[in-house]
Amino acid sequence: MIAVPGSGFAALAAKDATKTIPIVFEIGLDPVTSGLVRSLARPEGNITGITSLNLDVAPKGLELLHELIPQAKSFAAFINPDNPVTSGIITKGLEGPSRALGIQLHLLKAGTETEFEAVFAKLTQLGVGGLILGGDTVFNTRGPQLAALTLKHAVPAVHTVREFTASGGLISYGGNIKDTHRQAGIYTGRILKGEKPADLAVQQATKVELCINLKTAKALGITVPIPLSGRADELFE
User: Fold this and answer.
1) Which residue from 42, 136, 155, 212 could staple onto 80, CB 3.0 to 4.6 Å apart?
2) d(CA 87, CA 107)
3) How far apart are CA 94 and CA 135, in angstroms?
């Protein structure tokens, strides 16, 4: 039994490695277009799992950040050069909305956490008004570390995971990782009890959460509009 939480790259590698051992994935990629399964309803073979919206919400994250700091004329987004699939999806998703809002978008490469500090220094040099994070495992699993760096460099940022905002980041918008991990765990348990992956349709998580850290907003001199705070699922003060 192979469980692959949070990494489309690892899920594809697992699929290539075996055609017999059951595999359960939990990813933000489209599992059909990426080649993991033939269809959501009938995954076939030895693999099934859970998909989230954390790659698809990047444009909405940009819009939310713009709503908080409408005066900003340029944003940056981190992409992982070691994962061209997710980087391509994020880049394509952000290009149209940033152009429509009149925002210059800088794409900065950060493939490992050891590169984070240097990339944040680049943000200062560019003078960007905000930062878009998430959509890749490298960023999604390091929410607290990235939150600390945004505080250190006083960068307004949006992430896809709640842990980022709970740790001091400004705003997060995305699926609940605990929920998708739990669903992947349920599928793992069912398979270990004898069910076949081919008989378990790929589940699509559709719930997204908006979290805002009001304390961080105040520290950054940002006034959160009442309509936006009213839409939030969770406010940190």
Assistant:
1) 136
2) 10
3) 12
Question: What's the whole-model pTM score?
Answer: 0.85
Q: How many domains does the chain have?
A: 2
- 103 and 168 fall within a common domain: yes
Same domain, 125 and 23: no
**Burial 103-132, CB ≥16 within 10 A → b, else e:** bebeebebeeeebbeeebeebeeeebbbbb
In this predicted structure, the answer to whether residue 9 has a pLDDT above a threshold of 80 is: no
What does 9-28 look like in DSSP terms, one character per residue?
Answer: HHHHHHHHH-SSS-EEEEES
Beta bridge mates, 103: none
15 and 99 share one domain: no
Q: How far is 179 from 56, CA to CA, in rounded Å?
A: 17
Domain range holding 224? 58-174+209-236
- The CA–CA distances, whole Å, from 54 to 42, 95, 123, 157 equal 23, 17, 23, 16
Mean of pLDDT values over 162-185: 89
Q: Are 128 and 188 members of one domain?
A: no
- What secondary structure letter does DSSP report for 169? -
pLDDT digits 0-9 by tens, 108-144? 999 888 899 999 999 989 999 999 998 788 898 899 9
Express each pLDDT in 213-229 by its tens digit: 999 999 999 999 999 99
Helix (H) or strand (E) holding 163: helix 162-166
